[in-house]
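User: Earlier you gave me the apo prediction for this protein. Now I'd like the version with flavin-adenine dinucleotide bound, so I can compare the two side by side. Same sequence as before, with the ligand SMILES added.
Assistant: Got it. Here's the input I'm using:
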Amino acid sequence: MIPRTLFQAEHEQFRDAVRSFAESEIVPHLMRWDENGAVDRDLWRQCGELGFLCPAIPADYGGAGSDRLYSMILLEELAPLGGLGISLAMHSDIVAPYLVEFATEGVKRSYLPRMATGELIGALAMSEPAAGSDVKAIRTTALRSGDDYVLNGSKIFISNGTECGLVVVVAKTDPKAQAKGISLFVVDATMPGFEKGRRLKKIGLKAQDTGELFFNDVRVPATHLLGAENQGFQYLMRELPWERLQLAIAAVASAAAALDQTIEYTRTRQAFGRPVLDFQNTRFTLAQLASELQIAQVFVDRCMQLLVDGQLDPVTAAMAKYWCTDLQCKVVDECLQLHGGYGYMQEYAISRAYVDARAQRIYGGTNEIMKDIISRTL
Ligand SMILES: Cc1cc2nc3c(=O)[nH]c(=O)nc-3n(C[C@H](O)[C@H](O)[C@H](O)COP(=O)(O)OP(=O)(O)OC[C@H]3O[C@@H](n4cnc5c(N)ncnc54)[C@H](O)[C@@H]3O)c2cc1C
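And here is the structure of the complex with flavin-adenine dinucleotide:
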């Protein structure tokens, strides 16, 4: 295998800590959490205590001021274990950076330390019932009224939606304009008029909290506007390469875990008097998937290096998101097939990997939108 060159010894120590936490505090509970449709709330606080939340935010605000490789490690270790990896990444590596980058000092001090401890969970609310891929078409409005903005509208499919304590809400401050009328707000879940809807039932990522949010005349102080009015779309675009690379990282790690499980399974499962691994079809399938995953890993690692150097462009990130999540779905499908009927049973991890993978081609911008972004530059 091509050696990975991204990580230093301290990163590997951090990986060991995350892995042993996952083995003792996550893996034993996965089935129960899937049945409950949620992880235990206390898990967030445990993650906070261990420094697994918001590692990249400055120490002044409760983080560790670490480089983003720590976030990559968290994703690589946790994404193969259901929706928790994506939930934590949404909180730590999507929501928190918007506050660090664009919030007023008061908002940073009020929310970031509580996000780092896990007291508050963060969400990002962009999608609406009638506007997903086409963010410019959102209908939620935030209209200025004295020292506040008055927020009205609804959001759907929001990760961390039912447990969140704060939400970065994407709203129109100029409803007649398209992208140039969009602004971002930090909305506190305790603000009057903010209501959470039901926890949505999904075919996969069952323990990952995905919800609906409603805003009825919510008065949001103007100090909760992120950055400048009508600049929200630009801010969203700035953060997208990192957000999309996170999904590619999760895809490769999840697919690699599925492949490992399948190698192990086919080694022990017997058919026609020999291990399933001995059939040429099995060996060739596994060889093909291992090769494709190696190629994907090298690409993702190179993208990560570019990101750390501040040079990852949106098109390359779109390529990584689309190609790696497509590959993930292909890998888990082939791996499930090699498990036979057992692969279709919930007690086998591959069945979870299969249903969990499917969302990856949809959220974070669908893979069709990724291809559209890429094609525009050709
Ligand atoms: C588990 C999960 C978690 C999510 N978490 C969040 C979250 O935290 N915050 C949030 O804001 N959203 C979240 N989403 C929403 C997600 O980002 C959207 O579902 C996604 O962007 C697609 O939007 P849509 O569902 O409205 O589909 P649509 O936009 O209606 O698309 C339907 C189909 O049309 C295709 N299509 C649309 N436009 C084009 C085009 N121009 N060219 C070609 N094909 C096109 C799409 O690719 C898709 O196949 C989540 C979704 C899921 C499933």
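For your comparison, keep in mind: Residues 232-268 form the longest helix (37 residues).
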